[in-house]
Amino acid sequence: MPLLALAPTPTVGEAQAEAQVPRAVLWIGGAYLVCIPVCSAAGAACWLCWGDRSFPGCLRRDPWRVTPVLMIGAYMAVLSLLIVYTHLFLPRAPRAVLKRLANVGGAWVMVVLTWPFAFAFALRLAWLAIAVDCVLLALLAAVIALWVRLARTYGSSD
C-alpha cells in the first residue's frame, strides 16, 4: 500500500470549502473551460486561412501554417482538463499547484511560444512552425506526466 503525501495548507478542498462553490458549478464551469481553447484554436485556424478560397485548399498548399495554432489549442485544452480534474477530484492537492498551472503553464508558456509562432507565420518558415509543434508536443507530454503524478500523490486511497 503506497503512502499518500499530506498536502501543505491550504489545499484545493479547503479553498473550495471556504469559497462555498457548489460541485455542480465546478462541473459546468469545467465543461466550458475545456471547450474554450479548442473552439478558439479552430476559429483562429479558419481565420488564418480566410484569404484562401477554401480551408482544405489552405491545408493542402501549406499544412504547417495552422498546426501551431491547433497544437496551442490542444495544449491549453489538456491544461484546462488538468485544472478541472484537480478542482473536482484532488481536494488534498496544494492550492499552489493550481496557481502554478494557471500562471506558468497557461500564461508564461503561451507568451514565450506566441513569438516564434508569429515569426513562423509572418515569414512562412515551415521549419520554425515544425519546431514550435515539437515543443508543444513535449509540453503536452509533460502536462500529462504531471497529471499522473498529481493523481498518484494526492488521489484518493480507494
Automatic annotation (TrEMBL):
Pfam families: DUF7378. The keyword Membrane applies. The chain crosses the membrane at residues 27-48, 69-89, 101-118, 125-148. Residues 10-155 form the DUF7378 domain. InterPro entries: DUF7378 (IPR055802). Keywords: Membrane, Transmembrane, Transmembrane helix. This is DUF7378 domain-containing protein. It comes from Oryza brachyantha (malo sina). The lineage of its organism: Eukaryota, Viridiplantae, Streptophyta, Embryophyta, Tracheophyta.
